[in-house]
Specification:
Distance between the termini: 60 Å
Order of helices and strands: HEEEEEEHEH
Strand content: 25-35%
Strand order of the largest sheet: 1-2-7-6-5-4-3
Oligomer: single chain
Shape: globular
Mean pLDDT: 77
Number of helices: 3
Helix content: 10-25%
Structural class: alpha+beta
Largest sheet: 7 strands, antiparallel
């Protein structure tokens, strides 16, 4: 991570909520062209070294979404899991020109070894740049940077909050939930055995 990056150093009430187009045009293009990016608020992280639940304090956090730059890698395997690409690729168009400026790819995180991993609630959107029509952008060498947006989805069978309705309590990680579900399965098995006797 760059030393001068302003990760999570925002005034109260600040929210980082860029559109897909803004992420690509105002953050990813300057980064991929090795130009300075101001303000420098999105850190650089190695996607292969951090599990999604380890992003807190390292990636830019806005709401429940983590943002970071990473180099493109073919292998998204970590020590205890992997990112699996979904069959989803969405073009991103520039509002004024209507030209395709980027591509968004979607990934899910699985714990364990591929291809037998356990699906978690962690999703990642990975943003890639496209070539512009301008000769400047075609001739300028681009680096292999992407912007990643990671979040843990909520819903059926997914992480839940241990708080009241206001939602500001502690949350269980996907691993905690997996272990709790194993306990529930053991309780069900024990009850079935007891009822059979």
């Amino acid at each position: 991570m760059e030393a001068d990056c302003l990760v999570n150093q925002f005034p109260p009430g600040f929210r980082f909520c860029p559109t897909d187009e803004e992420l690509v045009l105002h953050f990813l293009y300057p980064k991929s062209l090795l130009l300075p990016c101001y303000p420098n608020i999105i850190p650089e992280l190695d996607l292969r070294l951090l599990h999604p639940w380890e992003l807190h304090g390292k990636a830019l956090l806005s709401g429940k979404r983590y943002f970071f730059f990473s180099q493109t890698v073919g292998n998204r395997v970590l020590e205890n899991g992997y990112w699996k690409q979904l069959d989803f690729e969405e073009p991103i168009f520039g509002g004024g020109s209507g030209n395709k400026v980027g591509v968004k790819k979607l990934y899910e995180f699985f714990t364990g070894e591929a291809p037998f991993g356990i699906k978690t609630n962690w999703l990642m959107q990975e943003y890639h740049v496209c070539n512009w029509g301008s000769d400047y952008y075609k001739t300028k060498e681009r680096s292999r940077w992407v912007v990643c947006k990671v979040e843990e989805k909520k819903g059926k069978g997914e992480s839940f909050s241990c708080s009241d309705e206001d939602g500001d309590g502690s949350e269980l990680s996907c691993l905690d939930e997996m272990f709790l579900s194993l306990d529930d399965d053991l309780d069900d098995t024990s009850n079935t055995i007891l009822n059979a006797n």
